[in-house]
Amino acid sequence: MRISSQIDVSTLSADLSQRSTDVTLFKYQALGNSYLIYDPQRNLHAIGSIERATDWVRMVCSHDYGIGSNGLLVGPDATVNGAFEFRIFNSDGSQAQLSGNGSRIFARYLLDAGYTDPTLKLPFSIAAISPMSRVVVDVPPPEPDDPRILTDINVVPSFGANAVEAQPGAIQGSGLHFTVAALADIGRRHRMGDKWIDSSLISIGNPHCVTFVERPETLPSVDFLTQLRSEFSMIADAPPHSSGPVFQHGCNLQWCFVENRESIHLRIVERGEGPTLASGSSASAAVIAAYARGLIDEDATVVMPGGMLQVTLLFHEDEIRGIRVAGTAERLAEIRVMSPDYAVCDRKPAN
């Protein structure tokens, strides 16, 4: 994939003793899903230092003690095989493998910051890296007069308990239909009856549990998910933030109602973050799961509390080889905050 205009970011690391006393962050949002961006070139910091500053990441992402955000994007780190690499941190300081909205926001930042020239309308690539994976996302040129950013997530989905590293005995079922006992139990205790018993388990570079409901009224509200955040976190979050009784590394949770073959409705609890208004990777996983069940076509609108995304499955020889997500992303603010004390914030994020 050709890079339209590229800045060498492979030599941006600097001696921390020469850093300034504050850093510049950029805040973006996509469908109510917000991220802060930490650009090493702008701040002249070593990229690895942020990974040790878990407490600082939690502070700046906090709505009470910091700026407020669903997470922190760090990059561009380098360009490897033609892709701008970046890292994704959840608001609890843990490192994520993939974020659909985060990828779109990072692509928008690269255009805004001049790493690529938007007037040339050429494609470029980004890569979300973590200790467990490297997911390449291609960014095609935008359609004329279309404000949306297109991102093609290059992943082959995998299904089942092994794909999401479910703990033995925590789930029952096979194929595309599983019952997650802990999730079903929450539903029963809070008057949902036996409505949360049919889930598909899928990995698209990060793990997802998509629970299908038959009526829109059995979709949990954002307020309901927020009130029970601690209960859902015990299922969704990775240890040590949960006891890990269901998924070895945590799992993103979705509730899905299929309106028709072109539209689904979604509610979301993200691993390491909690209830969110929207999620690109959750929307992608839900479309793949619904398509695999034969419920929708390969191109669908995903309706979430934060807004709508258009998700299109990409095929090669009748197999899903990727997901195209189309949606907006906008810059909200440029903010200067205190630099983290790396001598104190030396804990590594959870995988």
Automatic annotation (TrEMBL):
<dbReference type="GO" id="GO:0008837">
    <property type="term" value="F:diaminopimelate epimerase activity"/>
</dbReference>
<dbReference type="Pfam" id="PF01678">
    <property type="entry name" value="DAP_epimerase"/>
</dbReference>
<feature type="site" description="Could be important to modulate the pK values of the two catalytic cysteine residues">
    <location>
        <position position="208"/>
    </location>
</feature>
<feature type="binding site">
    <location>
        <begin position="270"/>
        <end position="271"/>
    </location>
    <ligand>
        <name>substrate</name>
    </ligand>
</feature>
<dbReference type="GO" id="GO:0009089">
    <property type="term" value="P:lysine biosynthetic process via diaminopimelate"/>
</dbReference>
<feature type="binding site">
    <location>
        <position position="252"/>
    </location>
    <ligand>
        <name>substrate</name>
    </ligand>
</feature>
<comment type="pathway">
    <text>Amino-acid biosynthesis; L-lysine biosynthesis via DAP pathway; DL-2,6-diaminopimelate from LL-2,6-diaminopimelate: step 1/1.</text>
</comment>
<comment type="function">
    <text>Catalyzes the stereoinversion of LL-2,6-diaminopimelate (L,L-DAP) to meso-diaminopimelate (meso-DAP), a precursor of L-lysine and an essential component of the bacterial peptidoglycan.</text>
</comment>
<feature type="binding site">
    <location>
        <position position="206"/>
    </location>
    <ligand>
        <name>substrate</name>
    </ligand>
</feature>
<feature type="binding site">
    <location>
        <position position="33"/>
    </location>
    <ligand>
        <name>substrate</name>
    </ligand>
</feature>
<dbReference type="GO" id="GO:0005829">
    <property type="term" value="C:cytosol"/>
</dbReference>
<keyword id="KW-0457">Lysine biosynthesis</keyword>
<feature type="site" description="Could be important to modulate the pK values of the two catalytic cysteine residues">
    <location>
        <position position="270"/>
    </location>
</feature>
<keyword id="KW-0413">Isomerase</keyword>
<feature type="binding site">
    <location>
        <begin position="280"/>
        <end position="281"/>
    </location>
    <ligand>
        <name>substrate</name>
    </ligand>
</feature>
<protein>
    <recommendedName>
        <fullName>Diaminopimelate epimerase</fullName>
        <ecNumber>5.1.1.7</ecNumber>
    </recommendedName>
</protein>
<comment type="similarity">
    <text>Belongs to the diaminopimelate epimerase family.</text>
</comment>
<feature type="binding site">
    <location>
        <begin position="100"/>
        <end position="101"/>
    </location>
    <ligand>
        <name>substrate</name>
    </ligand>
</feature>
<feature type="binding site">
    <location>
        <position position="90"/>
    </location>
    <ligand>
        <name>substrate</name>
    </ligand>
</feature>
<comment type="subunit">
    <text>Homodimer.</text>
</comment>
<dbReference type="InterPro" id="IPR001653">
    <property type="entry name" value="DAP_epimerase_DapF"/>
</dbReference>
<keyword id="KW-0963">Cytoplasm</keyword>
<keyword id="KW-0028">Amino-acid biosynthesis</keyword>
